[in-house]
Amino acid sequence: MKISSSLAVIITCVIITILQISCSQKPPDFTSFPKIDAHFHIHTLNQAVIDQARADNFMLLSPNTRSSNQAFIDEQFRFTVGQHKKNPDIVAFASTFSMQDWGRPDWQDKAIAYLQASFDSGAVAVKVWKDIGMTFRDADSSFIMIDNPAFDPIFAFIASQNKTVLAHQGEPLNCWLPLDSMTVNGDKSYFKNNPQYHMFLHPNYPTHAQLMAARDNRLAKNPSLRIVGAHLGSLEWDVDVLAKTLDKYPNLAVDMSARICHLQVQNRDKVRNFIITYQDKLLYGTDLGVSDNDDPEKITADVHNTWLEDWRYFTTDDTMSTWNVETPFRGLKLDKTILHKIYHDNALRWYPGLQSKE
Ligand SMILES: [Zn+2]
Asked: What CATH code is carried by the domain that includes residue 159?
C-alpha cells in the first residue's frame, strides 16, 4: 500500500514535470505579443490593413521612398502622415528627400528644410533607396553613390536631430548572378521578367561590392548616425558575411524585410546562432505594402497570413515550406526574450520616437 502510494506520487510528479516542459516550450501567443513591422509601405488612407494590424497587435513603420521627384514624395507623405494622425498608436513613418534638383546650389538646404518639416510632422527616420547608387547620375554621368560628399551635410543633419536612416542600398546578390544560380524562386521570376533590373546583364552598372563599399564608407563617415540596412543590408545570402559587417559598424542594424526567405535557404543552426548573437541588431519587417489599387479584403488577408507564417518560422520548429524556397526548412524556435527584441524592442531602440506597443 505504502509503495503504491509513493509510486503514485512519483508518477504524478513526472506528469507535472512533462506538462511544465511542454508548456514552457509552447510558442508565445501571436495576438497578445507586442509587435512592430518595421518596414511596411502604406499608400492609402483606407483603414482595413490598419485595423488588421491593430487586431494582430502590430505597429507599422511606413517608409516614404523613391527620391526621383518631389510630387511622388509629397503623395506618399499625404498617405503616411494622414494615417499617422488618424492612428498614432499603429502607424509611424519615415521621410525621404528629393534628388530632383541635385547639383543646384540650394539642393542641400532645400532637402534639409524638407526633412526638418517632416520631423516636425512626426517622421522618425529618413529612407534612402537603391536609386541612389543604381539610377541617379552626376553631371559627368558617373553614378551618384551614398558616400558622395554632397550628401555629407544631409546625413550630419539627420544625426544631429537624433533620427535614423533606413538605407536600402543595392539588391540581393542574386541580381548579379545568372538566373540558374539564384537561391530563391522570387528573385528568379522577378529578374526573368524584369531583365532591365538584372545586373548580371548590365556590367556597366556598379557591382554589388561597390554598392556595399559605398554604404560602408557612409557608416564610417558618420559614426554617430544610426543606419538600419533594409533587407538584411543586402548581405542576405550569408549570415557570416552580414555578421562581419555588423561587427565592424556599431552604428548599423538591419531589418529582415523581404529577405526572410534568404534565411530559410541557409543552414538552420547557423542562422539560429547568428540571430542569437546579433539579437540586438535585427528588426522584424516585411516590406509588404498596401495601396489604393489593392482590394482591401484580399490585401488584409495576405498581410495577416505573412505575419502568421513568419511568426511560425521564428517561434516554432515546425517543418515548413513556401513557394519561394525550393526545399522544406525548419522553424527557428527562438526564445521569448529574443523574439521580444526582434519583434519590438530593437525597433524602439533603433528608431527613437517610435511608440511602444506595451
Ligand atoms: Zn521597402
From this structure: 3.20.20.140
Angle between helices 239-248 and 208-221 (to 10 degrees): 30
> In Å, what is the CA distance from 23 to each residue of 16, 27, 78, 329, 338?
10, 9, 46, 24, 18
**Residue 250, exposed/middle/buried by CB under 10 A (0-12, 13-18, 19+)?**
exposed
Going from the first residue of the chain to its last (358 residues), give the mean pLDDT of each consecutive group of 10, the final group possibly shorter: 55 52 74 98 96 98 90 93 97 96 95 97 97 96 98 98 98 98 97 96 98 98 98 98 98 98 98 98 98 95 98 98 97 98 98 93
Span from the CA of 39 to the centroid of ligand 1 (angstroms): 6
Q: Tell how far the Cα of 245 is from the centroid of ligand 1, in angstroms.
A: 21
Residue 85 lies in a domain: yes
CA of 287 to the centre of ligand 1 (A): 5
